[in-house]
Design goal:
With 233 residues, the protein is α/β, with parallel strands linked by helices. It has a single domain, classed as Rossmann fold. It contains nine helices and eight strands. The strands form two sheets. Strands 2-1-3-4-7-8 form a six-stranded parallel sheet, with helices on both faces. The protein has a two-stranded antiparallel ribbon with strand order 5-6. Helix 3 links the parallel strand 3 and strand 4. Helix 2 packs across helix 3. One of its GO terms (molecular function) is hydrolase activity. Pfam families: Abhydrolase_6 (PF12697). Keywords: Hydrolase. This is Alpha/beta hydrolase.
């Protein structure tokens, strides 16, 4: 199986390096992405849009003859969902890592502080406590050292979706900072945060209790969990 790994904000392909070993050992072909504008701290991010990131995923999908699995962490989940909308017949499953599908017209996060047209990784105090579970001082230093400023428009551009076949693509959500039981409650209650997820016909919810960055705090367990998911498809 070809597995495309889409990082969340501030991260590049290397952020998946501790997650991929069990997938590779099982014979899967992994394709961790570095999205446009995240090539280095010196890259030009000024004109990069949310659509540019979606198009980068779609371009990679188009290189394969068989349907792929998309794995999206955090803001990468919105990008994965945009790619599913563009290529619903070419995606076998989407795995959302502490993330979920972003509905048409929604934005990933337009409240993050923009500095000179880009979004550096903010101070830890801006994040809620749930985000930071298991993120030790050492891991915080590692994540910050690896971070690259995020193109501002990726965070604030509106999602544009048009193909309702996106709701037919199976989804697995790996719930980290909030338990799957809470997501189930929200879906049943019509919470707007999970409105798009609730419209998908085949949704599986799994738990990996930790903070918002499991590829740093529980990478081996995340890799094993993704492997268990794709091994069934």
């Amino acid at each position: 199986m070809d597995i495309i790994l889409i990082p969340g904000f501030w991260l590049d392909a290397s952020s998946w390096s501790a997650v991929t070993p069990p997938l590779v050992a099982a014979g899967h072909r992994v394709h961790p992405l570095t999205l446009p504008g995240l090539e280095s701290v010196d890259a030009d991010r000024s004109g990069i849009t949310l659509r540019d990131h979606i198009d980068a995923v779609v371009a990679l999908i188009d290189t394969f003859d068989e349907p792929v699995v998309l794995v999206g962490h955090s803001g990468g989940g919105a990008i994965a969902h945009g790619a599913v909308d563009a290529r619903p017949d070419s995606v076998a499953r989407v795995v959302y890592v502490d993330s979920g599908p972003l509905a048409d017209g929604g934005v990933i996060n337009d409240e993050l502080p923009v500095v000179d047209g880009e979004i550096p990784l903010p101070e830890w105090s801006i994040f809620p406590d749930e985000d930071l579970v298991d993120l030790t001082d050492e891991l915080r230093a590692e994540l910050r050292a690896a971070s690259i400023p995020q193109p501002a428009r990726v965070a604030s551009d509106a999602q544009a979706l048009s193909d309702e076949r996106r709701f037919d693509v199976p989804v697995t959500v790996i719930a980290c900072e909030f338990p799957s039981s809470l997501l189930t409650e929200w879906m049943a209650g019509g919470h707007p945060y999970v409105a798009e997820l609730a419209r998908i016909s085949d949704v599986e919810l799994l738990d990996l209790p930790t903070g918002h960055w499991p590829q740093f705090t529980r990478p081996a367990e995340l890799g094993d969990l993704i492997l268990s998911i794709v091994s069934r498809d």
